[in-house]
Amino acid sequence: MIDLHSHILPGLDDGARTVEDSVAIAESAVEEGVRTIAATPHVRADYPTTAAAMEQALATTGAALRARGIPLELLPGAELDLEYLCRVDERELARLGLGGNPRLLLVEFPYVGWPPNLATELAELRRRGTTVILAHPERNPEVQAAPARLSPLVEAGTFVQLTAASVVGMLGTTARTAALDLLELELAHVVAGDVHSAGSRVGIGRLTDALRGDAALAGWLTTDVPSALLRSVPAPERPPPRRRRRWSPRRLVG
């Protein structure tokens, strides 16, 4: 598994506080089948993380993982607030590129409201040759009420990342329903952990169960598409559904 969203770096945001916290997150990730993880600290008004701070914390954390023999590849990155993007110059943005790819950005979808400038900002990033992954829109009430509202953005080239905990129901029925709706509408491409602490991971087995045993889809969401995005190559076609019947979140509770 490739996890494109985590708050594993210590002392930068509301995720890991210490290197030991980072090590615990890494150990939990490996136990759940993750082999590569992108460190994506918040970059926003309350956590104005710089590329230099991210890189320093990445080096410190990577050294700690190697010292303990933890087989987890740690990649650079950031989770950028849409409104904060205008404060970050292009060179800084390139250093904050997801997985070290200067033309790939993880952009945080707000938890409340629909940004009036969303389509315009994403179009400008595309014009500059940047691919955007929108983080966890299924947790936003606007998207929960009308998941298909993301369709024009996806058609224009934006990718959508769901939080694994949403898919399996750890964040409530509403988030789960929205996540499954987005999958049903083929408006989601990546599932990632967005972990802030150890013990909150969702393994590939549980994710596959939540997708009604569709291991091919689970692999596409957690390995195939993330790998393609990191390498800036076209994403593979989504595997055909194992069943034609629509998912029902109610059947997944428990």
What would you say the CATH architecture is? Answer: Alpha-Beta Barrel
Which strand-content bin applies to the residues? 5-15%
Please tell me how large the radius of gyration is: 17 Å
Reported for the largest beta sheet, the result is: 7 strands, mixed
Quick one: CATH class?
Answer: Alpha Beta
Whole-number tally of structural domains:
1
Q: If you average the pLDDT, what whole number results?
A: 92
Oligomeric organization of the protein chains? single chain
**What is the N-to-C order of secondary-structure elements (H for helix, E for strand)?**
EHEEEHEEHEHEHHEHHEHH
Instruction: Give the terminus-to-terminus CA distance.
Output: 25 Å
Please estimate the helix content: 25-40%
CATH topology: TIM Barrel
CATH homology group: Metal-dependent hydrolases
Structural class: alpha/beta
Question: What strand order characterises the main sheet?
Answer: 4-3-6-7-8-9-10
Task: Describe the global form.
Answer: globular
Number of strands: 10
Sum up the structure in keywords:
alpha/beta; globular; 10 helices; TIM Barrel; seven-stranded mixed β-sheet; 254 residues; three-stranded parallel β-sheet
Walk me through the topology.
Elements: E1 2-3, H1 19-31, E2 36-38, E3 42-44, E4 47-48, H2 51-67, E5 73-75, E6 79-81, H3 90-95, E7 104-108, H4 118-127, E8 131-135, H5 141-145, H6 151-155, E9 159-163, H7 164-168, H8 173-184, E10 190-192, H9 204-210, H10 215-231
Parallel strand pairs: 1-2, 2-5, 3-6, 6-7, 7-8, 8-9, 9-10
Antiparallel strand pairs: 3-4
Helix pairs in contact: 1-2, 9-10
